[in-house]
Amino acid sequence: MSQLINGLHHITALGGHPQTNVDFYSKTLGLRLVKKTINFDATDVYHLYYGDETGQPGTIMTFFPYPGIQRGRIGTGQVIITSFSIPNDSIDYWARRLEEHKVSFQSPSRRGDETVLPLEDPDGLLLELVAGENDQRKGWGGGEVPEEHAIRGFFGVTICVVNPKATQHLLTNTMEYSVVSDKPGRIRLQASNGSPGSIVDLACPPNAQRGLSGGGTIHHVAFSTDSDETQRQIREKLVDAGMQVTQVLDRQYFHSIYFREPGGVLFEVATNPPGFIKDEEVADLGTALKLPPWEEKNRKSIEQNLIPIR
Ligand code: ZN
Predict the structure, then answer these.
(1) Angle at 233 between CA 57 and CA 248, to 5 degrees
(2) Which of 43, 59, 147, 258 could disulfide-link to 153, CB 3.0 to 4.6 Å?
(3) How far, rounded to the nearest angstrom, does the alpha carbon of residue 10 sit from its chain's CA centroid?
(4) How far does residue 266's CA lie from ligand 1's centre (Å)?
(5) pLDDT tens per residue, range 20-39
(6) Residue 274, preceding bond cis, omega within 30 degrees?
(7) Rounded Cα–Cα distance for residues 117 and 128 (Å)
(8) What pLDDT, on the 0 to 100 scale, is given for residue 14?
(9) Can you say how many angstroms the Cα of residue 228 is from the centroid of all Cα atoms in its chain?
């Protein structure tokens, strides 16, 4: 049977003011804003997508930015850390850059074979820059960060759940993940193809409380699948494993199914096609407000309700 899950597709978080969000992710972190659209389920809120040049699966960080949103609480039942992969020689560059941009960060430290630089975005979302993976992906050098230091995409996610064995079981028995290491306090899993951007760590900070949704928290994590057909197959396997999986939803740039894994984290499986060049040329990605066809008739009022961003 062909492989059904390739690794991570995108990660979606709740943010605060959209301009602060764009400034941080596209300027400070140097990701490319590849799509400016709306939350299809709440059309007065943006949906902003950042990634590499074309927004390939495994590079896409997305936000629903709500100005003035109440902060959530990072804790159990959530993706608690989003980790980005950077080149091995770029840790010093990034520490300097974060300091210059007055970003809240901690000194880099070693964790196994990797060097980790923990930081927070302006809404308190926990991020890491991780150097140490053999990652040949090319980062986007078209922004303020030169290509030699650019973020290449995700390294992985850290998920905190009360019973990690149940989440591990779903990932290994149904979602084609394998355990890479099992140390006290941290189980590391990776997609079976071992591709960059597919790590899932199951780990919690000491005394973690129940996570509460709100600003600065992750809403869901999406895994990548090749096609509508592989999505149909993985959906069947998830249903057989007892998951309550939604029908396929058209997200314009991918097709999605959603379910809650046993620890309460919202998982999505998203198709790689059609991707972000569906409705914009590569050179123009992220420059215009794109609406799904069924909302075009409401464009005027939608535009009036959104905060302009640069
Ligand atoms: Zn999603």
Answers:
(1) 65
(2) 59
(3) 4
(4) 9
(5) 999 999 999 999 999 999 99
(6) yes
(7) 5
(8) 98
(9) 21
pLDDT of residue 2: 73
User: How far does the centroid of ligand 1 lie from the alpha carbon of residue 48, in Å?
Assistant: 11
Asked if the model's pLDDT at residue 1 lies above 70, the reply is no
159-171: average pLDDT? 98
pLDDT tens digit sequence for 234-282: 999 999 999 999 999 999 999 999 999 999 999 999 999 999 999 999 9
If you measure from the C-alpha of residue 256 to the centroid of ligand 1, how many angstroms do you get, rounded to a whole number? 7
Please give the Cα distance from 99 to 102 (Å, whole number).
Answer: 5
Q: Where are the domains of the chain?
A: 7-305
Using the mean position of ligand 1's atoms as its centre, give its distance from the Cα of residue 12 in Å.
6
Backbone angles phi, psi at 151, to 5 degrees: -60, 135
Q: What separation in Å is there between the alpha carbon of 222 and the centre of ligand 1? A: 6
Structure confidence at residue 132 as a pLDDT band (50, 70, 90): confident
Using a CB cutoff of 5 Å, list residues around ligand 1, an ion. Answer: 12, 222, 268
Any idea which fold 7-305 has? Answer: 2,3-Dihydroxybiphenyl 1,2-Dioxygenase; domain 1 (3.10.180)
Q: How far apart, in whole angstroms, are the C-alpha atoms of residue 143 and residue 233?
A: 39
pLDDT of 303 above 60: yes
Quick check: 27 and 98 in contact, CB under 8 A? Answer: no
What does each C-alpha distance from 156 to 39, 128, 210, 229, 240 come to in angstroms?
A: 24, 9, 22, 25, 27
Of 176, 169, 167, nearest to 230 by C-alpha is 176
Pairing of strands 60-65, 7-15: parallel
